[in-house]
Write a structure and sequence with these properties.
This protein is an alpha+beta fold and 83 residues long. The chain contains 1 helix and 5 strands; from the N terminus they run E-E-E-H-E-E. It has a domain at 2-57. A 3-stranded antiparallel β-sheet has the order 1-2-3, covered by helices on one side. The chain has a two-stranded antiparallel sheet with strand order 4-5.
């Protein structure tokens, strides 16, 4: 997903194929670390979204909206369902 490229100015750039992330780094090692860290962000988000999908399928929760920035769902526990 994330890659490191050498641009025409000689700087190492960490980029992501799944989103518009790009970051210029002083060395290739730094660019590789930052690209790997960025990939972990995508993995954490995918795990969170999977959990939210399971919550959304549960009859104990109801969707009350979504976050403005990324459209993630917001749920609350239904009051008529025992804990």
């Amino acid at each position: 997903m994330s890659t490191v490229v050498l641009d025409l100015d000689g700087a190492f750039v960490a980029t992501c194929g799944a989103c518009p992330y790009t970051e210029e780094c002083p060395t290739e090692a730094v660019a590789e670390r930052r690209a790997a860290a960025h990939e972990r962000v995508h993995a954490r988000r995918a795990g969170t979204m999977a959990l939210l999908r399971r919550i959304g399928e549960s009859p104990a929760f109801e969707r009350i909206g979504s976050t403005g920035r990324d459209g993630g769902p917001i749920y609350r526990r239904r009051s008529d369902v025992p804990k």
